[in-house]
Amino acid sequence: MSTAEKYVTGAYLVLLGSLLVYLLIIALKVGRLEEELADLARAAREKHSG
Amino acid sequence: MSTWLPSEDRRGPSLRFGPLFAAAAAGLLVGGFALAFYWAPEDADQGFSQKIFYLHVPIALTAYACFGWGAWKALRLLWTGERRYDLESYTAIHMGVIFGLLTLVTGSIWAKISWGEWWTWGERQLVLFLILFLFYSSYFMLRYSTDPGPRRERNSAVYALFGVVLIPVSFLAVRIAGTILHPTIFTHEGADLPWQMLVAFLVCLAGMLSLAATLYRVELTGKRIDASLRELRELLA
To answer: Could you report the predicted ipTM of this complex, rounded to two decimals?
Structure first.
């Protein structure tokens, strides 16, 4: 692999890597939102029953 | 109980067309990169390293588009007073900063191959893009230095609108001033490249814009869910 090919590959991998990092962030966020929603549902049930 | 952002103010484009944009982004980017590598001819001067063009330029133009979209939403906020535009403007600028960072990184890689250095301060377009990027990066500091509410929304909108002035300056700088290193492909006489390269470039650009639209909608939906949960929490407290 020539130097130019290495750099070009690196540039395209930057985009791919960024997308994967973004996917990871979104996955973590969805997990957090799911937990928060479960907490709120529990709080709503307690308020409704109590 | 009052909240700073009533739920009816958060209405706007949902994820309804999200899958469509995502499919378009995947198809166009894979197709565009395939065209760039296997169909478009190799550049006579730069050789294989010119293949970064199909990545770097669409990313840069997408960053401009995101900043422009953010400014448009900011203008809508100031014009109509509808508070949902604040979140939309903020999300667009958020996307613009991500694409701006990618522009600087991919541009640096291209510069290293072509010019032998990662960065040069002598090129107006590079420096102006860096200024644009730093300007919009500062947007977040301004936004989070004030409490949520109408004042923060107005200040953020005005800042976003000021920034958009830098876009044509950054874009046209290299054309007005002339340049030694940074190439100018698109001039007032048209595109200075073979039609196969132009087709591959346009497909990549459409793919990158679709990717930005997908990410924008995902991010906006996430922020809206966050706001709704915050409101619910206050109601249940």
So the answer is: 0.85
